[in-house]
Structures are given as structure tokens and as C-alpha cells.
Design a protein that fits this description.
This protein is mainly beta. It has 2 helices and 20 strands. Strand 8 and strand 9 form a beta hairpin.
Length: about 325
């Protein structure tokens, strides 16, 4: 009887503590809304930068609370602080809090948050629309800046990331392939002109997540480790002409990613004479002028993914046809 009585008290006090923690956790976003650069947050491989510029007086201090789906990188005055959030499910999201006082200064300050949404399921997070929310404030010398979203947060969609990058395994998101030439504007600088940036958009669905609670595991420490040696620097081979294309199929769920789809491709190859050309190809069935499937031969057993074929071409135009069963929801030919 004594044991039952103690357990009952424990459950009651634990419940009160949990309610109080949940209430305090909700307070950090009580004036905030989910934002994006559109109302829905849909899309695959979407990268946005949210930015807030503000002025502070002497002895500035502040905290920011934030959450993003799928993940974020936080910078204050151009300095990278950390990334998050901690892994969680949509019905029980965990937000992050940072004391940014040591990164603030008198005068002009800015915060940038690079937010990335997979748009597909992974073993890190379930499939979900992108979203961002922030709260907190900073003050100094009688001046105050609130971080609640939408406020005056600006947003910029980065164009350099390849939205068709393949998802090579069911456990991870798509590869991150970035062409910096497509994003020439410096977005993480005090001199950045945000005149061409859009105002953040309040999302149409504000009930898409469960109640927030604070992060339950520590942040990563971001300790820097310098490499001890450089093992080598190599140049890429350029003794072959390379032709490529990509065909993408659905990979938003594991079932879609894991389903083979039959695909076909064809083109014409011009040859100035009758000749046999050794060609490195990918998996698949290959036909030249209706003859095939061609038989592969191997020149280097260590190159598992390369298949070498001899293309017997006649003078003039030759019809080249490929049949392939798409795996991993992407055909990178």
C-alpha cells in the first residue's frame, strides 16, 4: 500500500511539472507564426534564407528561439553559431534557444537563418512541408528588437541547389549539389542589400505541428579540428568526352523510392566513317541501329559502376537506344 501511494504522488507531481514545462515552452512562440516564401511550404530540395536587420544601443544582449523543418543554420552578424533542430516528430517538435549576447554589438546587427526542406522522407525526419518560426528579442541602450515571425523578416530563395539531386539511399535525403555561380548575391554580410528580398509569408496552415517543447539533448559543440596532413591533390581525367542526363521519378516515400520504373532514352550519333568506338556506359540495355542488347566487356574490374561497350557505327547517323530500370528514383546516365 505504501509503495502504491508513493507511485501515485510521483505521477501527480510529474504531470504538474510536464504541464508547466509545456506552458513555458509555448510562451516563446506565443506571438509567432510559421513562415515561408509561400503559403504552403511544398517542394523538394528547397533552400531559403531568412534575414532580420535591426539596431541596438550600448551593452546589447538577447536570446533567439527558433525551429525549422527540415533543418536550419543560424548566423548572427555573419558568424555561424550552430545548426538544428534536434530530431523530433511533427506531433512533438523541439525548438532551440541561443543566447546571442556575445555576438551582438552597438549599431547595426543582422541575423540570417538558412533553412532547408528535404521534401522527402528520411531516417532523420519524416516527409513534411518546409516551415520556419522564431521568437525572442534583443535590447541595448534603450533600443529593442523582437524576433517573432513574421515581423519584418525578409526571405530569399537560393537558386544554386540542384532540386533533382538523387536520393542514393532510403535512409538519407537527396544529395546536396550546389552551384555557387547561381547565387551571386552575398546574403550573410552586413553590406547585403535586401531591397530585392521578399517579405516572409505567413503560412496558411498554422496547426501542422504539435505543441513545442525545448530541446532535450545538448547542442553539438562545433569544436574545430584541423587536418594533420594532406594525402594528395589530384586533377580530373579529361581524356574522354562525357555526355549525361538525369531522369527523376518520385522519391517522396520509401515505397516510391524503392519501386523500379522502366525508362527509355534514344539519340542519334553521327560518325564520319565506319568504325568501332569503345564507350563507357552505365547499367542498362543498349542498342545501336536496332542491334542488341550489346554485350559489355570490362577494362578495369575496380570500376564497378562503369560498363564498357563497343559501339559499331556506320558512316552517317546511327540510332542509339537505351532501356533501363530506374533504381533509387533517379537515372543518372
Amino acid at each position: 500500500m505504501f509503495r502504491i501511494y508513493i507511485i501515485t504522488l510521483f505521477i501527480i507531481f510529474a504531470g504538474l511539472s510536464s504541464c508547466r514545462q509545456q506552458e513555458n515552452s509555448q510562451d516563446v512562440f506565443h506571438n509567432s507564426k510559421f513562415i515561408w516564401d509561400n503559403e504552403t511550404g511544398t517542394g523538394r530540395q528547397v533552400y531559403l534564407v531568412f534575414r532580420k536587420d535591426f539596431e541596438l544601443g550600448d551593452s546589447p544582449s538577447g536570446k533567439i528561439h527558433l525551429f525549422a523543418w527540415s533543418r536550419y543554420h543560424l548566423n548572427v552578424n555573419g558568424v555561424f553559431l550552430n545548426f538544428g533542430p534536434a530530431r523530433s516528430y511533427p506531433d512533438s517538435p523541439q525548438y532551440d534557444t541561443y543566447d546571442i549576447s556575445s555576438y551582438l554589438k552597438k549599431g547595426h546587427n543582422f541575423i540570417t537563418v538558412e533553412v532547408y526542406n528535404n521534401g522527402v522522407y528520411t531516417y532523420q525526419v519524416p516527409e513534411h512541408n518546409g516551415l520556419f518560426i522564431a521568437g525572442g528579442n534583443a535590447e541595448g541602450g534603450g533600443e529593442n528588437a523582437g524576433f517573432s515571425t513574421p515581423g519584418d523578416w525578409k526571405v530569399l530563395r537560393l537558386q544554386g541547389y540542384d532540386k533533382t539531386s538523387p536520393k542514393m539511399t532510403f535512409a538519407t535525403g537527396p544529395l546536396e549539389s550546389y552551384d555557387a555561380r547561381k547565387d551571386t548575391a552575398e546574403w550573410n554580410s552586413a553590406e547585403t542589400n535586401t531591397a530585392g528580398w521578399a517579405n516572409a509569408v505567413v503560412m496558411s496552415n498554422q496547426d501542422q505541428l504539435g505543441p513545442f517543447k525545448a530541446r532535450t539533448i545538448p547542442h553539438l559543440t562545433q569544436d574545430e579540428y584541423v587536418p594533420e596532413t594532406c594525402e594528395g591533390i589530384y586533377t580530373l581525367r579529361n581524356d574522354e568526352d562525357i555526355y549525361s542526363f538525369r531522369v527523376q521519378s518520385s522519391d517522396s516515400t520509401r515505397g516510391a523510392w524503392n519501386t523500379n520504373k522502366i525508362a527509355f532514352a534514344w539519340t542519334y550519333i553521327y560518325s564520319p566513317r565506319n568504325q568501332a568506338v569503345n564507350t563507357g556506359l552505365w547499367w542498362g540495355d543498349y542498342y545501336v541501329n536496332g542491334q542488341g542488347p550489346l554485350q559489355k566487356f570490362t577494362t578495369d574490374p575496380d570500376k564497378f559502376y562503369r560498363r564498357d561497350y563497343t559501339l559499331k557505327l556506320h558512316k552517317g547517323w546511327n540510332y542509339f537506344f537505351v532501356r533501363y530500370g530506374i533504381v533509387w528514383a533517379s537515372w543518372d546516365y
